Amino acid sequence: RKEVEQDPGPFNVPEGATVAFNCTYSNSASQSFFWYRQDCRKEPKLLMSVYSSGNEDGRFTAQLNRASQYISLLIRDSKLSDSATYLCVVNRGGTYKYIFGTGTRLKVLA
Amino acid sequence: GAGVSQSPSNKVTEKGKDVELRCDPISGHTALYWYRQSLGQGLEFLIYFQGNSAPDKSGLPSDRFSAERTGGSVSTLTIQRTQQEDSAVYLCASSLVTGRGNEQFFGPGTRLTVL
User: Fold this and answer.
1) B108 touches chain A (CB under 8 A)
2) Which whole number is the average pLDDT over B45-52?
3) With bands split at pLDDT 50, 70 and 90, how would you rate the model's confidence at B53?
4) Who wins on pLDDT, A70 or A97?
5) Which of A18, A44, A79, B54 would bridge A36 by S-S if both were Cys, CB 3.0 to 4.6 A apart?
6) A17 lies within 8 A of chain B by CB
7) For residue B50, how many other CB atoms are within 10 A of its CB?
8) For residue A1, with 0-12 CB atoms within 10 Å meaning exposed, 13-18 middle and 19 or more buried, which class applies?
């Protein structure tokens, strides 16, 4: 089993739709969680950190469920510009090593 | 301010040759990471530098791979006797070390093609 697992997609959604991605992790000692966005042939960029209490940034909401060992990303009112690959990132507990998921690809359609 | 820079942006080499990839992190960032991303794959951790501590080399795939970080700043990833399976995008990232986890800032990557 991979340490961080994501559904590769693609998720094809119309503009304005709400879409959610999940990411599961296997190391219960993991302490830091992030969502990164990667556009085609570009470097990853931080979208948002994921805090225990959940957090929201505009149209984006991230949640952490430690008991079930998953994090989620909800995107409301999808825009064409949201089309990208979303990478789940989890640190290996007690270290500064970060494990990246293979990403979930989102396509927002006009 | 300046972000993470990497050079070269593209490198084509012949099997068996050595290559050097360079990373200039953001000034003041003490942590530096190297990753490899093959086509359609996730990022594979290679090596991590933090300040003056011994680097975490646990992700280097073979002894043909090595990396240095001089003066706590610039880093060089060297691949000796390159093989076709080394073809990938090599990404460097730097970060500050904070208590809430570290946002990593990535460079644009070096696309390596081994013929």
Assistant:
1) yes
2) 90
3) confident
4) A70
5) A44
6) no
7) 18
8) exposed
> Is the separation of the CB atoms in B19 and B11 below 8 Å?
yes
CA–CA separation, B86 and B38 (whole Å): 9
- Is B94 within 8 Å of B4 (Cβ atoms)? yes
What are the distances in angstroms from CA B56 to CA A26, A95, A103, B9, B42? 21, 10, 24, 25, 20
Mean pLDDT over residues A17-46, rounded?
93
Distance of alpha carbon B22 from alpha carbon B14, whole angstroms: 19
Residues on chain B touching A98 (C-beta within 8 angstroms):
33, 45, 102, 104
Cβ separation of B56 and A97 shorter than 8 Å? Answer: yes
Cα–Cα distances (Å) from B105 to A3, A8, A105, B79, in that order, read 22, 23, 21, 23
